[in-house]
Amino acid sequence: MSTSGLTRRRGAAGGGLGSTEGEASNAASRTNSSTNVKDTGPETSYENSENGHKIAFDPRDLSESAERSKQPKLTMMEEVLLLGLKDKQGYLSFWNDNISYALRGCIVLELAFRGRISMEKDPSRRRFSPADRNIEVIDDTLTGEVLLDEALKMMKQSEKMSVSSWIDLMS
Length: 171
Fold this sequence. Notes:
Helix content is 39%, strand content 8%. It is mainly alpha-helical. Its main location: Golgi.
């Protein structure tokens, strides 16, 4: 136990006492990962940065990034829709009355994130709120997502309109 008033929290396997035997066995179980398949203990590595500060990271995150690259990427609209679904019932919860408006906003944001559209660079329009600024198509290359491609085609073929006008029009 430390004398500064801080106590070390134990994982699911440990008790409240901070004995050196328990710490040694806990450290041994973490280092012997081949025998312990489900390793839930915290693991931290340090890396020295350019300015001399130590940066802590979990090396397990590096191995998980290879897994994530194999999984299909979701658009922001798909992520928001999944957040709105009730897990057990499989439908949208009562608070999602305006989710269609939010999903249309996600289409506009996703096109902006992918570098297909941007706000007009007119200095006279900077006094307006972002919702009232005009959108212009800067790259009409198709994204491969049907909804995004249709929205991009609509934006390219029609006159320049504001962000809120596009969100209202996509209903």
